[in-house]
Amino acid sequence: MTQWIEGRITENIHWNSNLFTLKxxxxxxxxxxxxxxxxxxxxxxxxxxxxxxxxxxxEQRTLExxxxxxTGGVLSNAMVKLEAGDSIWVKKQANGFxxxxxxxxxxxxxxxxxxxxxxxxxxxxxTTEAWERFExxxxxHAVRTQADLRYQEVVAKLCEKFQDRFLFQAxxxxxxxxxxxxxxxxxxLRDNSLEQELGLTLDPKNSHLMxxxxxxxxxxxxxxxxxxxxxxxxxxxxxxxxxxxYW
Length: 247
Ligand SMILES: Cc1cc2nc3c(=O)[nH]c(=O)nc-3n(C[C@H](O)[C@H](O)[C@H](O)COP(=O)(O)OP(=O)(O)OC[C@H]3O[C@@H](n4cnc5c(N)ncnc54)[C@H](O)[C@@H]3O)c2cc1C
Ligand SMILES: NC(=O)c1ccc[n+]([C@@H]2O[C@H](COP(=O)([O-])OP(=O)(O)OC[C@H]3O[C@@H](n4cnc5c(N)ncnc54)[C@H](OP(=O)(O)O)[C@@H]3O)[C@@H](O)[C@H]2O)c1
Description:
Shape: globular
Low-confidence stretches: none
Helix content: 10-25%
Order of helices and strands: EEEEEHEEHHEHEHHEHE
Mean pLDDT: 97
Bound molecules: flavin-adenine dinucleotide, NADP nicotinamide-adenine-dinucleotide phosphate
Number of strands: 11
Number of helices: 7
Largest sheet: 6 strands, antiparallel
Distance between the termini: 23 Å
Strand content: 25-35%
């Protein structure tokens, strides 16, 4: 049975009309970077719960979650209204296998996320383990508009701290913004343009990819990557692609 802990909202940041972040104080069990928990509210006498990835690293005490308000979405549209001091249910134990322990040894780690699907990557990037294990880490954040490109201050800090070991590239699909890719991740994997831009080659011997967010991006990227000799990472048959679909 789910064990619920009553958490307290410490901050609700409204980034734009569709995106927000909740910071929550709750005494939950220790989790592993990349995992998710469930958040819930009691709405019309019913406890409505959904899975959400931690954006904070396990060492950071305040829990942080990055949300999209889904059109007609029951829970996200209730959570967006929460204010500091309000309560929220947080599942005591985290879940999920989108974690570094599941990734076989390799040189470079590529993190490909759409929308709020970058959350688990920030959690992982803020652990020491990530930087002990990989030579280079690439973070790709694909969004529709520039207004959806959030957490750039965290990206800047990582760039400053890890220099040429950390590579970041934004994709903005519905606006032309200089310095960003205009289009989608899978086509840039198909024509090698992403690798050319980053100056780093993807190959099954050296690279592992973590894909998170829009299931269309995950599916289309896997299709391209399979054609280039990459395979899905499974416990029984280790491979090069580890995924988390958000819906
Ligand atoms: C492992 C995991 C981790 C997740 N982590 C996050 C997270 O960190 N941040 C986050 O915003 N969401 C995350 N999600 C999605 C989240 O669980 C909910 O599905 C989402 O918030 C919609 O819930 P709702 O009650 O508002 O909408 P609902 O009433 O459940 O449904 C509304 C519709 O929105 C669509 N939808 C589902 N997910 C999303 C989404 N992310 N954005 C827009 N539309 C969506 C569905 O197709 C659904 O039909 C995660 C999902 C999984 C499986
Ligand atoms: N953001 C909104 O204003 C909005 C409004 C209503 C509903 N929604 C729904 O909310 C969910 C999340 O919205 P979001 O804007 O955070 O994220 P999203 O729709 O997942 O878009 C994020 C990025 O992923 C890209 N993408 C979509 N499908 C892809 C595919 N098959 N392969 C590769 N890339 C792909 C998008 O490109 P494209 O721009 O080319 O699609 C965009 O650059 C989606 O279900 C969406 O339908 C969003």
